Amino acid sequence: MNDHEYAATVAWAGSTASGYTTYSREHDVQWSDEVVTLSADAAFRGDASLPNPEQLLVAAASSCQLLSFLAVASLAGVDVVSYRDDATAVMPAASTPTRITRIDLAPRIGVRRADPDVVLRLVREAHDGCYIANSVSADVVVTPTVEVLP
Q1: Taking the model in full, what pTM does it have?
Q2: In the chain, what's the furthest Cα-to-Cα distance?
Q3: Whether the predicted pLDDT of 1 surpasses 90
Q4: First to last CA, the chain
Q5: How far apart are CA 59 and CA 139, in angstroms?
Q6: 27 and 83 share a domain?
């Protein structure tokens, strides 16, 4: 099996000569032909209207859980018809080094004619196989809600 490699280009231009309080935190992240402008969190003098790296980490954990779950559910023959995760993360101010210590995923999963216990088992299986959750030092906690639809 070949290794998988991923790349992104991060670019910033400006000046820090005036000190910490004045330089722009805006920067671009590019992969393929897509460019997204990010900033620091507003708490770190960033632009609150732009996404920040901490949000991207939460989104990556949530997206990975979603994709892992859809894979195991489809292989198990479970018909998943909806999935929404309002994911959150915590970065304690007193943590040294500063880091996100916990990511909470709270997917609401709609399935057709499936045993909720089977779906919950598949959520756990997906979590165990999620590349992002396995790559970060933060605790990634999944608390799903399953709705069986007719």
Answers
A1: 0.91
A2: 63
A3: no
A4: 41
A5: 15
A6: no
